[in-house]
Amino acid sequence: MLKGKKILLIISGGIAAYKSLELIRLIRQEGATVRCILTKAATQFVTPLSIAALTREKVYCDLFSLTDESEMGHIQLSRDADLLVVCPATANILARMAHGICDDLATTALLATDKPVMTVPAMNVKMWQSPSTSANTKLLRARGVILLGPIDGDMACGEFGPGRMVEPEFILSAICEHFKETALLSGKRALVTSGPTFEAIDPVRYLGNRSSGKQGHAIASEISRLGAETILVTGPTALEAPYGVSVVHVETACEMYQACKAALPADIAVCAAAVADWRPEKINAKKIKKSGDPPAISMIENPDILGFLGNTKLDRPSLVIGFAAETGEVLDKAQKKINKKNCDWLLANDVSLGTNVFGGETNTIHFISKAGAEPWPKMTKKEVAKRLVLRISNHFREVPTNNG
Ligand code: CTP
Predict the structure, then answer these.
(1) Gap from CA of 400 to ligand 1 centroid (Å)
(2) Cα 316 vs. chain centroid, distance in angstroms?
(3) Which domains does the chain possess?
(4) How far does the centroid of ligand 1 lie from the alpha carbon of residue 344, in Å?
(5) Dihedral angle at the C-alpha atoms of 53, 58, 63, 64, nearest 10 degrees?
(6) Given the DSSP bridges, would you call strands 33-38 and 6-11 parallel, antiparallel or unpaired?
(7) In a designed cystine with 325, which of 36, 166, 336, 351 is the match (CB 3.0 to 4.6 A)?
(8) What pTM was computed for the model?
(9) Atom of ligand 1 nearest to the CA of 276
(10) 63-72, 83-92, 145-154: range with lowest mean pLDDT
């Protein structure tokens, strides 16, 4: 199951460190190689000698050890791995990771990596529940770090509650699941649009809309998590760049159109942006002053990005997906849109006042394809992203591409 995979296991200093020995045995049994970095505190709980015997690899302990640095520096250690697993992850190492502190080999390798990182927290209940640890884990999750557990249970300190490390068998299945999922879209290239566009009227004013970008960003993040090279072209939003995604920031529909054209070729295009349909024909160089009648703004149509991606003869992505924001007669209007824009799938939603779709956390989708319409239950935007991206990966498994 893990044949050929390389795991860099970082063991930090908690009583649960002894369970990492069993984890090493299980991972190696599945065919992966395991290299270990021990923090100084970890060496109080497990010895480098027993780790070396189990991994059959050199064990790395100290950033300032010249031998470690000359043989295999921290950059090389994380570059060589397919996945970094921090097990057990103490409150201390989670805090150092969250704040970019790199004062030993373990945290330096973690800061230097561009590989996925899985952490397995284990600590006292109060430490796990402290506002600091909660804020740190929230930060780490937002950056794409995977957290496994902890679970409720009896602890070495005599207390009971959340803080107990999950068992090595559970960690192994999460590692296997991770590799299975991240291979689903590997080798694919995806383009996602997100957020609103702003169309300037004068240096002060613009025409915009209420799109928050949450849906498009969640889709880009999920596509990237499943292994596709992902480019997110986004209008102005308050959101952080999703982990692992290349982000192109634009303001206007014309800029978004140019950025999307430049991002081709792509296998997948998902247009989740709320692109302004029109822009002022001319941008006033100076602020329009209040004098007499309100100004009449003459508008011209913006390029239709989804329409272009669906209809282009050159470089059409093999799967083109759009959204349809409608207020009433959602299905009828969405059917017309799928034909006009020649997209493969359309996710239609009702954005009438009161539905709170724009800016909100949830979405109620009608999934429309050539096969017909399928209502999805009300879901969070992250759940919509997961369901859509799983469908995308199934599509590529069912429809072989030119290169196989
Ligand atoms: N879209 C686009 N470029 C535009 C307008 C829309 O790429 N200039 C995309 C949106 O990202 C979405 C889909 O087209 O995926 C439908 O957007 P929507 O606003 O619902 O439809 P419009 O084409 O703008 O038509 P209308 O506003 O008349 O409903």
Answers:
(1) 29
(2) 25
(3) 6-177 (3.40.50.1950), 185-398 (3.40.50.10300)
(4) 15
(5) 100
(6) parallel
(7) 351
(8) 0.85
(9) 8
(10) 63-72
Residue bearing the CA closest to ligand 1, atom 12: 323
Question: What pLDDT score was predicted for residue 64?
Answer: 59
Closest ligand 1 atom to residue 346 Cα is: 15
Q: Please choose, from the candidates 232, 225, 246, 228, the residue with its C-alpha nearest in 3D space to the C-alpha of residue 187.
A: 228
- C-alpha count within 13 angstroms, C-beta hemisphere, residue 62: 7
pLDDT (mean) for 54-62 = 92
Of residues 36, 87, 157, 176, which has the active-site annotation? 157
Q: Is 157 a catalytic residue?
A: yes
For 80-117, write each residue's pLDDT tens digit: 999 999 999 999 999 999 999 999 999 999 999 989 99
Q: Is the pLDDT of residue 129 over 60?
A: yes
Pick the residue whose CA is nearest to atom 9 on ligand 1.
306
Prior bond of 265 cis (ω within 30°): yes
Query: Which atom of ligand 1 approaches the CA of 324 most closely?
Result: 20
The per-residue pLDDT for 403 is 41
